[in-house]
Design a protein that fits this description.
Elements lengths: L1 H23 L3 H21 L2 H34 L2 H35 L6 H30 L4 E4 L4 E4 L2 H5 L2 H32 L3 H36 L1 H7 L12 E8 L4 E8 L2 H7 L9 H27 L4 H10 L3 H5 L13 H9 L5 H31 L6 H9 L3 H15 L4 E3 L3 E2 L9 H32 L2 H5 L1
Antiparallel strand pairs: 1-2, 3-4, 5-6
């Protein structure tokens, strides 16, 4: 009964964080994308002196401001959850994770918030160049804000630059340089901000297509589409290229996630094929009706023709041995807590320390890992398999949308260069209907990244179920309900304001 109650609290806490994160990320990519588009538009205004580009910058800036405010309101509460719902997580890794969140708040958020004020209220108080500099610094601050959050998230995926301290019983920072230049962080940052640029470009493209269909604000819409098409095409290509790099980094430090994304139950001869289509089954651990592209996965994941990509069953067997090693580390750690000078325990712990997190996986089934039976170890090893069908299809829908964006922006760019995009009604309707697709792709990307990391809060270090606070199910349900109600209200307000000012269009600039 206790185990069931704990799992309920863990699941509810995970659900609450997922809901708040997914709500928050409805606003983040548009903020990232629009900030740079505003800087590009204002740069054209400063270089050409044409008033229409100033009007464009101010109009899209109004929509950016609405979205920015909603992003701030939904983002603040997320950080407090580490203390309210994930207290032991915060205690265990706060030395590393907390420093990154602090830098994000002090360096990026304050920079972003300062220059957004200058952007809106400095048009008649600053020179053209001064205001342009503020707009570019606003875009820089927006990207910096994403950088530090993604460095923190990447550390959870690949915990470098840190070590377990037997004195404090916590993970502690050993190298800030390694944490910041974590290869997963660099790849994740560029991939995520590029997805934000795609979102911002699609937003501008879709709204401009709406204006052309309505024969309103035609000159501004044509110019906006030209900016969105060129910037969006470059960004969409970057997303696909950097997605390939993400696959390579996953093969280095998150092999189970990669195998689950591919529904690869058995290790294939190198180079492994990429499954275009299949129906993975959790019941019998098979994938039915597979359609494969030979060699593709092996080349993406390993950059070689000879290196194998391990399958799920092989990784489960590897997890069993690591769990057994982790149990030995746990036993030695308990001995060291009684006698810090025990040299035998020190050696055993040093030899098995890297697998301590795996040993903690059995605490989901037994209170004392030292008493874990072979059956418990088997259960713990199998718990390292994430939900394969969810990852398999989330990844494929995301990738499919990525290629669709390339085609859409590519065609928009071609028609913009020919200056006849206004006459292609079918394409304009398609562009307008494509508005929600970047958000779907971005949310699915987070599903792959976060759901695929389970059962780990920190890969190989801390199981998710150990990180929760000592709270009741009723408390979590209450706060979850409150967040859903509050965030839904904000979303409705955001959609109402966006719709209102989009219908008014660039005329709002003259009314302010």
């Amino acid at each position: 009964m206790y185990e069931l109650a704990m799992e309920t609290i863990v699941d509810l806490s995970r659900l609450q964080f997922a809901v708040t994160a997914l709500y928050h990320f409805l606003f983040v990519p548009l903020t990232i994308g629009l900030s740079l588009i505003l800087a590009i538009m204002e740069s054209v205004y400063v270089m050409t002196g044409k008033e229409i580009w100033r009007t464009m910058t101010k109009f899209w800036g109004v929509l950016f401001g609405i979205n920015f405010a909603m992003g701030v309101a939904t983002g603040i509460t997320m950080e407090f959850q580490f203390g309210t719902n994930w207290a032991y997580y915060s205690h265990y890794v706060g030395d590393i994770f907390g420093s990154l969140l602090a830098i994000e708040g002090l360096m990026a958020f304050f920079l972003e918030a300062t220059f957004i004020g200058l952007f809106f209220f400095g048009w008649n108080k600053l020179t053209k160049v001064q205001h342009l500099l503020c707009t570019w610094l606003l875009a820089l601050g927006t990207n910096f804000s994403a950088l530090w959050i993604l460095v923190a998230n990447a550390w959870m995926q690949n915990p470098v630059g840190s070590a377990f301290n037997t004195e404090s019983m916590r993970m502690e920072l050993t190298s800030f340089y390694d944490v910041f230049f974590n290869p997963v962080a660099q790849c994740k940052f560029v991939h995520t901000v590029s997805a934000g640029y795609v979102t911002g470009s699609m937003f501008v493209l879709s709204i401009s297509a709406y204006y052309l269909l309505k024969q309103k604000h035609v000159d501004i819409a044509k110019r906006s589409i030209a900016v969105a098409a060129s910037f969006g095409l470059a960004s969409a290509l970057s997303v696909v290229v950097l997605g390939d790099e993400s696959g390579y980094t996953a093969s280095e430090n998150q092999k189970m996630k990669l195998a689950a994304m591919e529904a690869m139950w058995e290790t294939e001869p190198a180079p492994a094929g990429f499954t275009l289509f299949g129906l993975p089954s959790l019941n019998d651990h098979k994938t039915y009706f597979e359609i494969k592209v030979p060699w593709a996965l092996g080349l993406i994941a390993t950059r070689s023709f000879t290196q194998e990509v391990p399958g799920i069953r092989e990784l489960v067997e590897e997890a069993k041995s690591r769990i057994a090693s982790g149990i030995e580390a746990y036993k030695a750690l308990q001995q060291l807590r009684l006698n810090k000078t025990d040299e035998v325990a020190q050696k055993i712990f040093a030899d098995n320390q890297q697998n301590l997190g795996y040993g903690l996986l059995v605490k989901r089934f037994v209170d004392n890992p030292a008493t874990a039976s072979s059956e418990v170890i088997d259960k713990a090893a199998n718990s390292t398999i994430p939900n394969v069908p969810v990852l398999f299809w989330s990844f494929r829908i995301m990738v499919g949308l990525g290629f669709y964006f390339i085609l859409l922006f590519g065609y928009a760019f071609y028609r913009s260069t020919r200056r006849d995009i206004h006459s292609h009604e079918l394409f304009l309707k398609l562009a307008m209907l494509s508005l929600p697709l970047p958000w779907i792709a971005a949310e699915l990307g987070w599903v792959v990244a976060e759901y695929g990391r389970q059962p780990w809060a920190i890969e190989g270090i801390m199981p998710t179920f150990l990180g929760v606070s000592s709270v009741s199910k009723e408390q979590v349900l209450f706060s979850l309900s409150g967040f859903v109600l509050f965030y839904t209200t904000l979303l409705v307000i955001d959609l109402y304001l966006m719709r209102k000012y989009i219908k008014i269009g660039p005329d709002i600039v003259n009314q302010r």
